[in-house]
Design brief:
By secondary structure, the protein is mostly helical. It has a domain of 103 residues: Serine Threonine Protein Phosphatase 5, Tetratricopeptide repeat (Alpha Horseshoe), CATH 1.25.40. The chain contains 25 helices and no strands.
């Protein structure tokens, strides 16, 4: 098999930097590198699943260049990636000078992470759009999980860039993460026209086709990805899942073995991305098929197995196969008896069966374990209302995050007393949507 994508010049440069850095550190020598090189090397280690090395390089960079703004901003983003929002905010507030707009973008991102959305919008809009590279802003929105805003920003501020590869690439990702898979496919095809030897673009096309249930087309795309880069481990992993979905377990296992050999996943890991695509498209039956493949053929850790049981319960609940769903939720509760999310899902299933007492018991246990879930009191109030337990209805409403007024309470009770079936069904459906993941 021909490997069509040799290392790019930049990848060769980074490999050489890594060899030079490690050799000189082993010998205890001072490593002289420019700040940009150290930042690139840190990112390279992160991308190659060496987080400890990345930390080491960034620490060394900041000791060597303590006042370089670019490195401080990069470190703040690294704190964010690790989930340490407080450390990122503290560091950002210590940065005094920045003339490129990068610090403003970081502050916008920190406001979004702190759920200060209006302040973030105000800060972003307080600068002329030309101050920011549209692709950088879109990427910031993507990292903050606002893919729709990334699409809007690109289309509004990226005029004239539509045929640039970077623009098309981030727009493709934004469409994919927004669940707009047909639009993402169209963008993939344009990118492949520009670079037919890109293993990444072919894999992206395959994953979008997988999300739409076009499994044979997705297999062809994965084949092209591997043809262009025989070490494209992610393509083997997606191909494994596609064969599992098509019922060819032998081929699925063969591709999984190669993916593990290429260090894309550890031996017991699952391909969370492809599974998420199926769940996003509400392909519950196919998601179940894939998870059963994992349970049968992977040496999952206890935590992975329990999480898979939970996902199976959610899928069966979505299909209204209540008995199977309860079975899997009970498997989870054997190991995590106080898991409020699982208890909440069981409550929904009991509601489907009109077993309201059992539903209330599950919700009471859930809120005892996680008192901050005050929205559950709303659900408990509605169930009590349907059961004509009006004192409990009033009590739970007063404890909820959105208590009803006296007039609203009385109107609800009158509706139940009048046996208004349409309104009762509406209440039940609203509760299901509130509880469903």
């Amino acid at each position: 098999m021909v490997k069509r994508n040799p290392l790019s010049d930049n990848e060769k440069r980074l490999n050489e930097l890594a060899r030079e850095y490690e050799a000189q550190r082993r010998e205890g020598k001072y490593v002289y590198m420019e700040p940009d090189d150290l930042a690139d090397l840190c990112m390279w280690y992160d991308n190659n699943h060496c987080p400890d090395k990345a930390d080491e390089v960034m620490d060394y960079a900041l000791r060597t260049y303590p006042d370089v703004t670019m490195l401080q901003i990069e470190q703040a983003y690294r704190y964010l990636d690790k989930g340490d929002l407080d450390a990122a905010i503290i560091l950002a507030n210590q940065i005094e000078d920045d003339y490129t707009g990068d610090l403003q973008l970081l502050k916008v991102r920190l406001m979004i992470e702190s759920e200060e959305y209006e302040k973030a919008e105000e800060l972003l809009n307080s600068y002329p759009p030309d101050d920011f590279d549209p692709i950088m802003v879109a990427n910031m929105f993507m990292e903050a999980h606002f893919s729709d805003k990334a699409i809007d920003w690109l289309k509004k501020h990226g005029q004239g860039m539509e045929e640039e590869e970077d623009y098309m690439s981030i727009l493709m990702n934004a469409y994919c993460y927004s669940g707009k898979y047909q639009e993402a496919i169209e963008m993939c095809e344009k990118l492949i026209d520009k670079d037919p030897f890109s293993a990444h673009y072919w894999l992206s096309l395959g994953r979008c086709q997988l999300a739409l249930g076009e499994y044979n087309k997705a297999l062809d795309a994965c084949d092209f990805s591997i043809t262009n880069d025989e070490d494209m481990g992610e393509a083997y992993l997606t191909r494994c899942n596609l064969f599992a979905l098509l019922g060819n377990e032998q081929k699925a296992k063969e591709n999984l073995k190669i993916a593990i050999k290429l260090h894309v996943v550890a031996p017991g890991d699952m391909n969370e991305m492809d599974l998420a695509l199926l769940l996003d498209q509400e392909k519950a039956e196919d998601a179940i098929k894939l998870m059963n493949f994992y349970l049968k053929h992977l040496d999952l850790t206890d935590e992975q197995r329990i999480n898979t049981y939970f996902r199976l319960g959610v899928c069966y609940a979505h299909m209204r196969w209540d008995k199977q769903a309860i079975k899997y939720f009970d498997n989870v509760l054997e190991h995590r008896p106080n898991d409020a999310e699982v208890l909440t899902q069981k409550a929904m299933l009991y509601m489907n069966q009109k077993n309201y007492d059992a539903a209330l018991d599950q919700l009471k246990t859930a809120i005892e374990n996680e008192p901050e879930r005050k929205y559950l009191y709303r659900t408990m109030g509605i169930i009590s209302l349907i059961m004509k337990k009006y004192d409990d209805f009033r009590k739970y409403s007063s404890l909820s995050d959105e208590p009803l007024s006296e007039n609203e309470l009385n109107e609800a009770i009158m509706m139940i007393e009048a046996n208004d079936e349409f309104s009762i069904n509406y209440l039940l459906e609203s509760v299901r949507k509130n509880l469903c993941i």
